[in-house]
UniProtKB/TrEMBL annotation:
Species of the source: Paenactinomyces guangxiensis
InterPro entries linked: Calcineurin-like_PHP (IPR004843), Metallo-depent_PP-like (IPR029052), Metallophosphoesterase_sf (IPR051158)
Keyword Transport tagged: no
Record-annotated membrane-spanning stretches: 6-22, 34-54, 74-96, 116-134
GO MF annotation: an example: hydrolase activity
Protein name, UniProt field: Metallophosphoesterase
Keywords (A to Z) from UniProt: Membrane, Transmembrane, Transmembrane helix
Length: 382
């Protein structure tokens, strides 16, 4: 399935590249010198080739090249995407003008109009990509205030920090996680939850220890808890290097089990539904056996799915990630169609759902149209 999706996307990407190349050649004009044309071709191929080269050549290219090619390909792929949209918008305006004739003839027929438009597209694309790269590296704290109408024993209030979609790996390294520790010190939570996709895939030897060492710096009164996400391949095996290091760092990985927090509430952690190993994840109703439903029930589930099931089983607060809020506009329009809620707070009677846009990035190391975040939740009890 994933191979089919990559094939389809590469086909669409090729069409976008062809469209950009054809329009760019037209804008360049016949009067351009031979040297100018050669330079433009070199820049064009440096723009469009890194992404497919990184995707198709991962297993054959030298290991030292692939990481840099992947990063370069991520940036260039988004540049192609926005360049295509801008050129398409210009051509759409030209098409409407053929009927409405609202563009002055002096503008349309001026010899400098095509190169000025071309330069404007290039500058705007560079500005968008530059902003997206900067935005991805500057997470914010998003705050919510939620009230659960249940008795939580000795607790009247609980401060929770939720971190989702770190995607530790090639792009998000230890240095990037230092900002995460600073944000934890700002929030001063009572409990921390890691809502899946802690890693971007299987980690090279030694990286699991580095990741766990950083996360282990988070010290909170009620502990740090995590659930697997669809990218957390190293959390599928109970005896993996990552599982061992997280345990040593005091981080509790909940895979279809629950834990009671003092005399106050229950935290239920679900395994990810895309996990390829067996058995399949348990039903929520089975996970709730042995819990006291008169106490607050907090569900930690990477993907915001089965919301009706969570509500029907008396979950008071569900914490999820996964969607990235689309990460790159206009992908948020797609996530908005796929999920009932793709970001923020959703309230249905006594059921609350909070979805984070995530701390890191997947694929292109950019965020456009949303912010990376750490979620701070003030949970009040009655």
């Amino acid at each position: 399935m994933w191979g089919l999706m990559i094939t389809v996307f590469l086909f669409l990407y090729s069409l976008m590249c062809y469209y950009i190349g054809r329009r760019g050649w037209t804008i360049l004009g016949k009067s351009a010198s031979r040297l100018t044309r050669i330079l433009c071709l070199i820049v064009f191929f440096l723009l469009v080739l890194p992404f497919p080269a990184a995707e198709l050549g991962e297993d054959v290219l030298p290991g030292a090249i692939v990481p840099w090619l992947t990063i370069w390909g991520g940036y260039s792929m988004i540049a192609v995407l926005y360049g295509f949209f801008l050129l398409l918008a210009i051509d759409f305006i030209r098409l409407i003008d053929k009927w409405a004739r609202f563009i002055p003839a002096a503008v349309k027929e001026h010899k400098k109009t095509p190169p000025i438009l071309g330069a404007a597209v290039v500058i705007l694309v560079l500005a968008i990509v530059t902003y997206g790269g900067w935005n991805a590296r500057n997470p914010v704290i998003t705050e919510y205030d939620v009230t659960v109408n249940k008795d939580a024993g000795s607790l009247q209030q609980l401060q929770i920090a939720m971190i989702s979609d770190i995607h530790y790996g090639l792009i998000i390294d230890v240095e990037r996680l230092n900002r995460l520790i600073e944000m934890m010190n700002e929030i001063k939570p009572d409990m921390v939850v890691l809502a899946g996709d802690i890693t971007d895939g299987s980690l090279p030897s030694g990286e699991a220890g580095k990741l766990a060492e950083v996360l282990g710096q988070i010290k909170v009164p009620y502990g740090t808890y995590a659930v697997p996400g669809n990218h957390d391949r190293d959390l599928r095996d109970h005896d993996s290097e990552l599982m061992r290091h997280l345990k040593e760092a005091g981080i509790h990985v909940l895979k279809d089990n629950s834990v009671r927090i003092g005399d106050s509430l229950y935290l239920i952690g679900r395994d990810d539904p895309n996990r390829r190993s067996v058995p399949a994840r348990k039903e929520l109703k089975d996970l709730l056996k042995g819990t006291d439903s008169s106490r607050p029930l907090i569900l930690l589930d990477h993907q915001p799915l089965d919301l009706e099931q969570a509500q029907a089983n008396g979950i008071d607060l569900q914490l999820s990630g996964h969607t990235h809020r689309g990460q790159i506009f206009p992908a948020n329009l797609i996530t908005g169609l796929i999920y009932e809620q793709d970001w923020g707070l959703l309230k249905k009677e006594n059921y609350h759902l909070i979805i984070s846009s995530g701390f890191g990035t997947w694929g292109p190391p950019l965020r456009i149209g949303n912010h990376p975040e750490v979620v701070s939740i003030t949970l009040n009890f009655k």
